Amino acid sequence: GVFADHENARRRVESLLAGGVELASLDETTAGPRTLHRVRVGPFATIEEFDLNLARVRALGVSDAHLLTQ
What we know:
alpha+beta; 3-stranded antiparallel beta sheet; 2 helices; globular
């Protein structure tokens, strides 16, 4: 997810890590004059690893998680 508030993003990362999502991280991006804080999970080597972590993320109440590829 993307957060305007750094503390909200940091709390999300901490809850993901505590919930067993090991590859949760926080980075910053800009949108015009605003700094946004993006919570990311991954990268994953396999689809199975992605599916397992997506289930963990959703079990923690994050319903809008989706796959991004680079």
